[in-house]
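Q: How would the structure tokens look for this protein?
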Amino acid sequence: MLNVRDALVSEIKDIRNQRVEAYSEYENLLPADHWKALKQSILSETDLQDGVEIIVAELEGNVVGSVVLFPPKIKAYEGFGDVLDHSEIRMLAVSPTVRGKGVALALVKECMNRVKAKGYSSIGLHTGEFMKGAINLYEQCGFKRIPEHDFEPANDGIIVKAFRYDF
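A: Here is the predicted structure in token form.
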């Protein structure tokens, strides 16, 4: 059974390594500078800011996925993007060994539930245009494009697309 919970401080290093493993499928699809920027972003310590929540999914006692939930009006991306008026989902990562088992969906729904419980009216996220599976998941959850908040992290024509869900 899948258990979704807050991450323990002692798990953060392993969570970051798992993020790199999960995102490494894109390494050979991206220009080197873009991969470097993406890897730097998923390994950054922006997730240690006050009010930021690191959430994990556990299966049979093992952490198999994670996501970071940023509160509104906090910089979620180092050097990129806008400071937004809504919470932001970042760094959703699922171990390749458990893909297709609902882990990503459970983590996204947990973020949505937490934001709604806090009384906020919307939640957003950004994802690379090359992450087709992620985009499909977010659209299935009801997220809508907000292209005015897109950005281009490596000046290579690859766009990081913005989405938002309004409760």
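The two ends are 28 Å apart (CA to CA).

Strands lie at 2-6, 53-59, 62-70, 87-94, 122-128, 144-145, 160-166.

Upvote if useful.
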